[in-house]
Amino acid sequence: MAVNETGTDYELPCGRDLDALWDRLDSVDEHEATCPHCGTARESLLALRSATAELVAEPDPVPPGLVGRIMSAVRAEARRGQMLDLPTPEPGRVEVSEAAVAVVLRYAADSAGDVRARRCRVRTVGVASDGGGIVEVELTLAVRLGNVDGAETLARVRERVTTAAAARVGLTLAKLDLLVEDVYEDGE
Amino acid sequence: MTGEAEYVIADPVVASVAARAALDTPGVVRLEPGLRGLVTAWTRAARGRWQGLDPAPIDGVRVRSVEGGLTVEVDVVTSAFDQAAAVGRAVQRSVTRGVAEQTGLAVDAVVVSIVDIELERR
Fold first, then answer.
1. pLDDT at residue A51, as a whole number
2. Exposed (0-12), middle (13-18) or buried (19+): which is A44, by Cβ within 10 Å?
């Protein structure tokens, strides 16, 4: 196997090699003292060295819960996409993410019994006089097979979801569509 | 010379005070820094270490001062036991009050973003 003379492709415009510069970082020769390319490269390498030294010296290399914090930040970033305005008399704004509202409403639907909430779509369709958003919700459900009174179950879901929107979020639903798209059996 | 002094309160100070006020509001589970906030927090923590300081957390709080107006933006996670809208309004009030009491600055607007509502976990 042929070995490149310099051992690397990182050659500076002046012809010097970056690896060689890294090896002699503390002893500058005559060329390096005046060459702008070597000077710039040396500065970057020194910054890199001090940064890595700091990381190595860090007594607690991975802060506790780091992965959790990153994942929670990533999730929050995704939720930040669509926000709904909530009414407030104070200067500024109070908004809530559609995803957060969807979780609350799905949970409320599940608590009605005999159904399982699937998708929940929340859309802002206007602004109420108090500054809060007017929203329409479409909730997709699966109902339990053998459920005796479907109409009653859906009425219960409607009541729970509407109540949760008002009590837990502070939203008034202009419209709530319940779509039954599936059935499930007990123990599923 | 009148002997008057002008005090300048830096944004991170306002942010720390606002973060504490928001966290102490009932119904707030935690502040949510987001990716940008996380990076900013690390940079601040690293800088604080070099200077031997332990900076107060400001995760999830941004302070903007535009043309003399001071706006504080807070990203929070609330508990589903409390109404999100009511908690949001309470955060607005406690941030305004906290910043006024501790820095003497008047906040013009507080924007509260509820990124998540925690159900009956934990």
1. 67
2. exposed
User: In B1-122, which ranges are E strands?
Assistant: 28-31, 61-66, 69-79, 109-118
Q: Is B106 in the A-facing interface, judged by CB distances under 8 Å?
A: no
Interface test with B, best of A71, A84, A93, A161 (most B CBs within 10 A): A93
Among residues A104, A96, A114, which one has the least CA distance to residue A155? A114
Q: Measured between beta carbons, which residues in chain B are less than 8 angstroms from residue A167?
A: 83
Contact B115 A80 (CB under 8 A): yes
For chains A and B, count residue pairs whose Cβ atoms are closer than 8 Å: 110
Under the banding of pLDDT at 50, 70 and 90, the label for residue A74 is: low
Q: Which pTM value belongs to this model?
A: 0.69
Q: Is A169 strand, coil or helix?
A: helix
The amino acid occupying position B31 is L
pLDDT category at B32 given cuts 50, 70, 90 is confident
Rounded to two decimals, the ipTM of the complex is 0.80
The rounded distance, in Å, linking the Cα atoms of B56 and B12 is 9
Q: Which of A64-73, A86-95, B15-24 has the lowest mean pLDDT?
A: A64-73
Q: Which residue of B has its CA nearest to A169?
A: B84
Q: Do A90 and B110 touch (CB under 8 A)?
A: yes
Under 8 Å CB-to-CB from B114, ≥6 apart: which residues? A86, A94, A95, A96, A97, A100, B76, B77, B78, B84, B87, B88
Residue of A86, A99, A107 lying closest to B84 (CB–CB): A86
Helix and strand tally (H, E) in chain B?
3, 4
The tokens describing A16, both together, are 């010097």
**If you measure CA to CA, which chain B residue comes closest to A88?**
B89
